[in-house]
Amino acid sequence: MSLLSCSRLGVAVGGKTILSDVSLALEVGKVTAVVGPNGAGKSTLLSCLAGLRTPSSGSVMLDDAVLSEMKPRERARRLAFLPQTPEIAWPVEARTLIELGRTPFVGARGQTAEDRTAVDRAIAAAHVEAFEHRIVDTLSGGERARVLIARGLAGEPEWLLADEPLTGLDPAHQLDAAALFRRLADDGVGVVVTLHDLSMALRTADRIIVLAEGGVLADEPPAMALTPEVLRRAYGVEATLTEGPGGPLIDVIRRV
Ligand code: ADP
Ligand code: MG
Fold first, then answer.
1. Which pLDDT band holds residue 110 (cuts at 50, 70, 90)?
2. Most buried residue, 41, 75, 120, 218, by most Cβ within 10 Å?
3. Within 13 Å of residue 217, how many CA atoms lie on the same side as its CB?
4. What is the DSSP-derived secondary structure letter of residue 69?
5. In whole angstroms, how far apart are CA 254 and each of 228, 235, 238, 239, 248?
């Protein structure tokens, strides 16, 4: 069983501490949500966990290997990362972009039937069939976000790390994406997502990590992580956890 972990992770830029002393052990087969206010260090943490950013101190391990020392191709086979503000450099068809998710597997002979099947499966899972042949520049933000989820899935990764994947999706597609994360986790994938919608985090995640000011404020099963005290300390708001018709609900009452 694969384990993605970090130990005493620290990131500092120009004398400013962005993350300090973050130790986590993440498991496959679970949806882990990372929440916290703007600037808490969520994106920085995710890019360190994806091996795309080298921490100033501490280390990130994928099983027994130090992530930053793994060959990029090997790392990319096991772990997919969906950035918060993806740059799509040139006008390509959505399907072509999704096929790039197979890059770590494609050999000198080019795409195999297996590659094409994996791309088809990813397209179906992320519901992008309707626009797989459109140029990505012409897609809406939410459609593009689903294309990027499909690109991540095309590599059939063991780990899917997604930075705010629900931002920009309408409610129905948010539910679809949350259900997809659940399904992936049930199939044994390690899903790590940063989220802003706390109620969505409660309903989607098996575990919630609350980051604030570069440190871990809580790391618990959902209902235990988002207590009124944690919400006050992390976000500076008075909020309560209630039970709504669709599941747990965070009601933000006022700033404190
Ligand atoms: P979040 O995703 O939780 O909003 P980020 O990880 O993007 O937070 O950023 C955490 C803090 O680190 C912010 O204050 C941000 O401005 C700062 N930061 C992130 N990257 C850099 C960088 N390369 N140089 C300077 N400051 C940075
Ligand atoms: Mg961020």
1. confident
2. 41
3. 23
4. G
5. 12, 11, 5, 7, 19
Q: Would the pLDDT of 84 be above 90?
A: no
3-state class (DSSP) for residue 65: strand
Residue found by looking up tokens 């391990």 in the block: 61
Return the residue whose CA atom lies nearest to atom 14 of ligand 1: 39
Q: How many alpha carbons fall within 13 Å on the CB side of residue 145? A: 18
- Which of 22, 44, 194, 210 to mutate for ligand 1's pocket (most ligand atoms within 8 Å of CB)? 44
* Chain segment 1-14, per-residue pLDDT in tens: 899 999 999 999 99
Complete DSSP assignment for 149-211: HHHHHHT--SEEEEESTTTT--HHHHHHHHHHHHHHHHTT-EEEEE-S-HHHHHHH-SEEEEE
15 token code pair: 């004398």
pLDDT tens digits for 31-68?
999 999 999 999 999 999 999 999 999 999 999 999 98
Q: Which ligand is nearest to the CA of 209?
A: 1
Tokens of 91: 């006008």
Q: How far apart are CA 43 and CA 49, in angstroms?
A: 10
Sequence-ordered alpha helix ranges (H) in 88-140: 94-99, 113-125
CB under 8 Å to 97, separation ≥6 — which residues?
88, 136, 147, 148, 151
Q: What is the pTM of this model?
A: 0.95
Residue 1 tokens, joined? 């069983």
85 CA → ligand 2 middle, Å = 9
Q: Which residues line ligand 1 (CB under 6 A)?
A: 13, 18, 36, 38-44
